[in-house]
Amino acid sequence: MIERADRRLVEEALENQAGVVLLGPRQVGKTTLAQDIAESRDAVYLDMERRADRQVLEEPDLYLDEQAGRLVVIDEVQLMPDLFKSLRGQIDRRRRQGHRTGQFLLLGSASNTLLHQSAESLAGRVSYHELTPFMPSEVGVDAVTSLWLRGGFPDSFLAKTDRASLTWREDFIRTYLERDIPSFGLRIPAETLRRFWTMLAHEQGGLLNAAKLAGNLGVSGQSVARYLDLLVDLMLVRRLQPWHANAGKRLVKSPKVYIRDPGLTHALLGIETMEDLLGHPVVGGSWEGFCIEALIAAAPRGTEASFYRSSAGAEIDLILKLPCGDTLAIEIKRTTQPKITRGFHIAAEELDVSERILVYAEIREVPGQGGVRAMPLMTALERLSDA
Q1: Other C-beta atoms within 10 Å of 44: how many?
Q2: DSSP assignment of 144-203, as one string?
Q3: CB distance 286 to 150 below 8 Å
Q4: d(CA 210, CA 204)
Q5: Rounded distance, CA 195 to CA 36, Å?
Q6: SS in 3 state form for 352-364?
Q7: Do the beta carbons of residue 23 and residue 130 sit within 8 Å?
Q8: Which residues make Cβ contacts (< 8 Å) with residue 156, sequence separation at least 6?
Q9: Fewer Cβ atoms within 10 Å of its own Cβ: the N or the C terminal residue of the chain?
């Protein structure tokens, strides 16, 4: 059993807020984490995918009034959007009764949809946390290579063999396309969306070219935008926006797109083993996306992430603007040589960054050229955690 780093954060939030909204894609471990937390306190668990539990909340105030003072865990809460207004009243009544914190733990699998539903109803009453697949800091340095290949979904990462892991991910993708996405009321042909998802895997970390994707799929540019919005909303794809504060420069305006879990990238491309991965053209983009997800997850809450690319060729893979005001410029390379391009230094000088970091494939930290600190991924994650 791997201890989730988010458990402490969620429990701390429950000590300070009436409710916590825990977001994350399906099968990422939200239910397991919530049930572990519930076991340590007086709590009740309801799953909105179960008809009996939905019926319990058809008249929510009648049931929830009886649970005052207990932690109520509601799983897949986005399936009952009308519930949010009742939850607002429940939280306010419980506060008047002296139950000010730790009242509701809401689990959801669609971030923007859920945030939109709850933003007005529960503003100031809940905090939001995203549960990612396993991250390197959770599995340890010896398992990072396996984590990169299989991805961080618990059932995939913990599978007995690479073949079993790949089979799980293939089933996961099929279930999402054929059951989960239609359950949100979205009518998109499963085969079309799979082709789109696979195209993104081939272009892992590339600039979004909506016109090219639309032409290959035989759909409109608006449809491509809708498909991408959906996968971003389901927390399966990251749309990394370009740095925009430097108005005097001609900058690339298109976002970069990454499939957030490398295991899903590899499953979409039929990559089963590390040998397959190392010989595949996507290896560089896959490693970059894996590192970017881990770095963003390790950064302090409130960190802004972007990338930088100018028309003159100056480029930074990842810019992290920390809440303290520091700006980190991070280059990511699968190399054992701590060398960096001139374009990176030009971009770092243009942005006047606080720190320059190269994440590379060696196991020791060394000073690089031009003030760059070259370090392995785990050291970079520790640097961000300390921030």
Answers
A1: 15
A2: HHHHHHH-S-HHHHT-SSHHHHHHHHHHHHHHIIIIIHHHTT----HHHHHHHHHHHHHT
A3: no
A4: 14
A5: 38
A6: CCCEEEEECCCCC
A7: yes
A8: 150, 165, 168, 169, 172, 263
A9: N
Residue 383 CA, distance from chain mean position: 20
- Whole-angstrom distance, CA of residue 259 vs CA of residue 288: 11
In tens digits, what is the pLDDT along the chain, a chain of 387 residues? 788 989 999 999 999 999 999 999 999 999 999 999 999 999 999 999 999 999 999 999 999 999 999 999 999 998 888 898 899 999 999 999 999 999 999 999 877 777 777 777 788 889 999 999 999 999 999 999 999 999 999 999 999 999 999 999 999 999 999 988 887 767 888 999 999 999 999 999 999 999 999 999 999 999 999 999 999 999 999 999 999 765 556 777 899 999 999 999 999 999 999 999 999 999 999 999 999 999 999 999 999 999 999 877 889 999 999 999 999 999 999 988 878 888 999 999 989 999 999 999 888 888 867 789 999 999 999 999 887
Q: What is the helix (H) or strand (E) element at residue 271, kind and residue range? A: none
Query: What does the block give as tokens for 285?
Result: 């983009």
pTM of the prediction? 0.92
Q: How far is Cα 107 from Cα 10, in angstroms, rounded to an integer?
A: 12
Pairing type for strands 372-375 and 366-367 reads antiparallel
- Let me know: does 199 contact 213? Beta carbons within 8 Å: yes
